[in-house]
Amino acid sequence: MGGRDATMVLLDENGIRCDGRKIDEPRKIVIKAGGLKNADGSAYIEFGDNKILVGVFGPRDVHPKHMSNTDTGILRVRYHMEPFSVGERKRPAPSRREIEISKVIKEALEPAVMLEKFPRTAVDVFIEVLQADGGTRCAALTAASVALADAGIPMRDMVAAIASGKVADTIVLDVNNEEDQAGQADMPIGYMPSLKKITLLQLDGVLTPEEYKKCVDVGVKGCEVVYELQKKALHEKYFGNRGN
Amino acid sequence: MADKRKYVIPGDVVTSGPFRPEQNVILEGNDIISTVVGISEIYDDSVKVIPLTGKYLPKIDDLVIGKVVSHTSLSWELDINSCYIGFLPAMDVFGRDFSTHSDELSSKLKTGDLVAARIANFDRTRDPLITISDRDLGKIDDGVLVKISTSKVPRLIGKKGSMIQMIENGTNAAVTIGQNGWVVVACESAEGLSKAKKAIEMVNEKAHIANLTDLIQDMLNEKDES
Questions:
Q1: ipTM at complex level
Q2: Which of A82, A146, A208, B69 could form a disulfide with A43 if both were Cys (CB 3.0 to 4.6 A apart)?
């Protein structure tokens, strides 16, 4: 998939990765809050070559009714990849992978969103991946949290996410598609920067305990970089050039 | 009184120390954290954040504009631009001697009617209970509905009602503002109506501009001369 060379060197002797980044350098990230008129809140993120659009509705009443909870609101997340988001056409029906990622993102957002303020309602998050290039779940989670803030849903903290991983025996930040395919480990991390709490941690691959610790540290540092960009996006929309 | 206004987003520490957390803030350890995008205000002993976005959440005693969506034999259901539907019992309209046999609900309020109402009661376990038995409340017979963002309602009212008074005086229109972001404009002249509508929409779009009052005043004067 993708147009890049398959026989590339993942990490050269100068510590430069296959797409020219240093080991602790994330891809270029652009976040924009708002943009969708009909959604209550929305966000668009470009995370390297990932392009993801998120729309949030709610709080609104729950249909079907039996899903509602009298104690708290519920969060529903749909992660969906467009048929044209990957090299070969993806069938548009939700796949096993998409259902799983929807659940994972939902559970990563739940600690942040204060749903108990809206009993008997639902907050719906729709994530559309327009273009995928590895690390979509982190990018989607990052954008979803901006969209939720844009919708005015009370949150304890933003959730920033990025993946760290192990490529050519080195711990790197922000694993791209090639590194994910050929690398040794991939660890997506969702993090609440002000509360200093991790809400998402997955690991695909094998790491030693030391590598694991380093991987988490690198990922958390990366999340703080992402957080600054989330902050910037919301400030741009709501405060223009004023404010801090 | 309120000093140290700050632009905040969810997760931002507004301040630390012995403050009472009020609207849209939570206490986390010793820090007061904002939960919404908004403007923080620190008072002598309390902290709150004025939200810039978000849906209307009913509050007891709020004046709202509702739209009748349906009725049962005992009550009406009102769309009040919130995540909950407003519940208006028939007894509130017909009085104590209301009877399901003799009174027909659709004779008073039909689906689609606009109502100026007050939130009589609301808690997290039930839908908001609405009343129209008060002065200035009840069915709205004429006027145009303008929908604005809930967070811009205080801006439209202005300090001690200054903004809305200016619009009313400038256009001869009667404006009813619901806290839920629905506004009804009634005016005898078509010109005044469209001007008042335009002014309200302008407040909605440009709420963040500092000298908005002057801008609206200019707009209201402008057309008088032409």
A1: 0.85
A2: A146
